[in-house]
Amino acid sequence: MNTKLYLGLDVHKNSIVVASALADGSEPQSYAKWGGSNLSVERGLLKMPKKFDVEKSEISIFYEAASKQGQVIYCSKIRLLDSCS
């Protein structure tokens, strides 16, 4: 499937709330709440391609980058998804 997936992350010190939206016009959804650890972020990101039936290159992630956790997400995203938005 060649549908683009957009993930919006509301980053807090101990948790990350994840919203998802497919570019096919379907309604955006509150998807999950991850823990705030690096491991939780990595596990969550690795599940996205299979869960939404998209290629890693078709995932765009939007989040606040002002926090230390935002920097961790950026590093995890580059390493796990091999893409940058």
Tell me what the structure shows.
Strand 1 and strand 2 form a beta hairpin. The protein has 85 residues and is of the alpha+beta class. It has a single domain (5-81), classed as Nucleotidyltransferase, domain 5 (2-Layer Sandwich), CATH 3.30.420.80. It has a four-stranded mixed beta sheet with strand order 3-2-1-4, with helices on one face. Helix 1 packs across helix 2. The chain is built from two helices and four strands, in the order βββαβα.
How many distinct folded domains? Answer: 1
CATH architecture: 2-Layer Sandwich
Main sheet record: 4 strands, mixed
Report the helical percentage.
Answer: 25-40%
Percentage of residues in strands: 25-35%
Strand order of the largest sheet: 3-2-1-4
For CATH, the homologous superfamily is named as Ribosomal protein S11/S14
CATH class: Alpha Beta
SS element count, helices: 2
C-alpha end-to-end distance: 20 Å
Q: Indicate the multimeric state.
A: single chain
- Coarse shape: globular
Strands, count: 4
> Which stretches of 5+ consecutive residues score pLDDT under 50?
none
Write the H/E string, N to C. EEEHEH
User: Gyration radius, to the nearest Å?
Assistant: 12 Å
Category from helices, strands and their pairing: alpha+beta
Structure keywords:
single chain, 85 residues, alpha+beta, Nucleotidyltransferase, domain 5, 34% helix, globular
List the helices and strands and how they pair.
Elements: E1 5-11, E2 15-22, E3 29-35, H1 38-52, E4 59-63, H2 68-81
Parallel strand pairs: 1-4
Antiparallel strand pairs: 1-2, 2-3
Helix pairs in contact: 1-2
Short note summarizing the structure:
This protein has 85 residues and is of the alpha+beta class.
